[in-house]
Amino acid sequence: MCGACGTGTIRPPWEVVLAGDRPADRRRRATAAAQATGGRVKVTPWGAAGYLLTLRTGPISTCTNLDALALGLLKHVSPPLPACSPCHHPAEQRLVRLPADTDIQRLAVWSALATAHPDTGLLTIDIHAPAPQGALANTPSHPVCSDHHRIRVLRTAATRPSVLLHGPHGPRYEAHLRACLGADILRDRRMTG
């Protein structure tokens, strides 16, 4: 049920809101996931929303969605995600503005990996993505966002995406995001919260 309007509308998973659900979108996400491991793991789309994870030595694993895939990929990610367990560092917020040509599939994979990591503490991610042409942007009565508890995707009228990281180790996660996207990312400002 939609929490904003109570209409009984079921929202799609966050990765569909962010990066689409066409077969081509899922193939690009699978490619981005394999690249996040440096090619050590083969990832292919499977079924309506799942993925097959194939290690060089070992059985094939089925993953029902991008979050399950991220859990399976964590120990193979290169470079590894920042870790701090148990984390007692203060929470902060980092706003990272991304270029207009950001690879949204790669951003989706990075977000799933960052929130799946057990040592990320209370990291949450708000992704503000441009609404597709001709689509309505967020409205107070029915925001177009996902229901994932650690990743929120909000469609906006902005021309380029931005990511708001909430939690400890913001600079380290921002650096990892930069490395994963392989793009010149502008950091707008550091906000403490």
Tally the helices: 5
Question: Which structural class matches the secondary elements?
Answer: alpha+beta
Mean pLDDT: 80
Q: What is the string of helix and strand elements? A: HHEEEHEHEEEHE
Unreliable spans are: 136-144, 187-193
Distance between the termini: 30 Å
Strand tally: 8
What is the CA-based Rg, rounded?
16 Å
Brief characterization of the structure:
By secondary structure, the protein is of the alpha+beta class. Helices cover 27% and strands 25% of the residues. Strands 6-5-7-4-8 form a 5-stranded mixed beta sheet. A 3-stranded antiparallel beta sheet has the order 1-2-3.
Report on the structure:
By secondary structure, the chain is of the alpha+beta class. 27% of the residues lie in helices and 25% in strands. It contains five helices and eight strands, in the order H-H-E-E-E-H-E-H-E-E-E-H-E. The strands form two sheets. The protein has a five-stranded mixed beta sheet with strand order 6-5-7-4-8. Strand 2 and strand 3 (60-63) form a beta hairpin. Helix 3 packs across helix 4 (104-116) and helix 4 (104-116) runs antiparallel to helix 5 (170-181). The longest helix has 14 residues, at 23-36. The protein is globular. The two termini are 30 Å apart.
Give the SSE layout.
Elements: H1 14-19, H2 23-36, E1 41-46, E2 50-55, E3 60-63, H3 66-73, E4 92-97, H4 104-116, E5 124-130, E6 151-156, E7 162-167, H5 170-181, E8 186-192
Parallel strand pairs: 5-6
Antiparallel strand pairs: 1-2, 2-3, 4-7, 4-8, 5-7
Helix pairs in contact: 2-4, 3-4, 4-5
